[in-house]
Amino acid sequence: MVQQPTNESDLETGGHHAGTLSVLHLINRAHKRLEHLLFNLEGESDVQASVVDIARALTHATDLNPNIALACILLNQEEGSYAVRHCIDSAVVALLVARALQKGPAETLTIMAAALTMNVGMLPSQEQLQSRLNAISDQELALIHNHPQQGVDMLARAGVADPDWLSYVLAHHENEDGSGYPLRKTGDEIPFNAKIISLADRYCARVSSRSYRKSLLPNEALSDILLADHDSVDPMLTTCFIGVLGIYPTGAIVRLANGEIGVVAGKGGSPTTPVVHALIGPQGAPLSAPIKRDTANAQYTVREMLSEERAGVRFSMQQVWGDEARP
């Protein structure tokens, strides 16, 4: 299990503005650091410490405002390359799930480090694969099935010696029913923390837009995991996962009972009553400023979840969450 290094450099450069650290700035900076690291793995002097330092920076950003960190998964999809951003998103979800399961700080860092590096074995090809319009070839399918082992080999050569970290990377595509890869492990043969990463990976992939398919709405992604993947995932872990994300995940766009359209800004008093900031009025006119709505009030209950395209709304995260979501 990795230990927490003492380097505080990332905690001091979060885009200061009138005393406010920007969570969005910290997350985007972590993305740039991880992208440079993963694409230059052989040239880095201490990969293990560098990845853990990025995991600590993401932890700090999430501690500052977990709502913004979660909203980035849905609302910050244009930042950098998909392949690296996906690992950042998955690490944030894995962090929150690990905490809900009362994992200790050092174990949680190891889970995050594995999530950040889970796809290093196919990184050069991942952008090409996710942007293609036609079916993948047998050679590309073999690459996909081999990338966990390839990733472990690359990380080991780069000096990552933590056996738990490597085991989570190796097993993050294994399934409960033995239908996964590369070793077709089942049930308790799969490290539990690898299952956390796997679920985070599945969810974040489903809500991300690809050239060959539109992103799923968050509730559709969760339903897909529950229904389509029910034989391949741990049901107890899925329950915990939904508890962390909520029925209406932060960053989701929703229509309220009064016709207003807004964005989920955080959890409310119950799973069905999130905090929503209205952005468009009942008649379809943009509001001059977001208005906080109590969705426990019958007038403002959530009627449905919408895609950005269908909602026809454009807004910045800073409009909703203030300077903590400044670019």
Task: Summarize the model shown.
This protein is of the alpha+beta class and 327 residues long. It has helices at 23-39, 47-64, 66-75, 82-100, 105-117, 123-131, 138-157, 163-171, 192-206, 218-227, 235-245, 308-311, 317-321; strands spanning 253-256, 261-266, 275-280, 286-294, 302-306.
Mean pLDDT: 90
Tell me what the CATH architecture of the largest domain is. Orthogonal Bundle
| Low-pLDDT runs | 2-13
Q: Please report which band the strand proportion falls in: under 5%, 5-15%, 15-25%, 25-35%, 35-45% or over 45%.
A: 5-15%
CATH H-tier superfamily of the largest domain? Hypothetical protein af1432
Profile the largest sheet.
Answer: 5 strands, antiparallel
Explain what this protein looks like in three dimensions.
By secondary structure, the chain is an alpha+beta fold. The chain folds into two domains: 9-245, Hypothetical protein af1432; 253-325, no CATH class. It contains 13 helices and five strands. The protein has helices at residues 23-39, 47-64, 66-75, 82-100, 105-117, 123-131, 138-157, 163-171, 192-206, 218-227, 235-245, 308-311, 317-321, and strands spanning 253-256, 261-266, 275-280, 286-294, 302-306. The chain has a five-stranded antiparallel sheet with strand order 4-3-2-1-5. A hairpin with a 5-residue loop joins strand 3 (275-280) and strand 4 (286-294). Helix 5 packs across helix 8 (163-171). The two termini are 33 Å apart.
Helices and strands in order, then pairings?
Blueprint: H1 23-39, H2 47-64, H3 66-75, H4 82-100, H5 105-117, H6 123-131, H7 138-157, H8 163-171, H9 192-206, H10 218-227, H11 235-245, E1 253-256, E2 261-266, E3 275-280, E4 286-294, E5 302-306, H12 308-311, H13 317-321
Antiparallel strand pairs: 1-2, 1-5, 2-3, 3-4
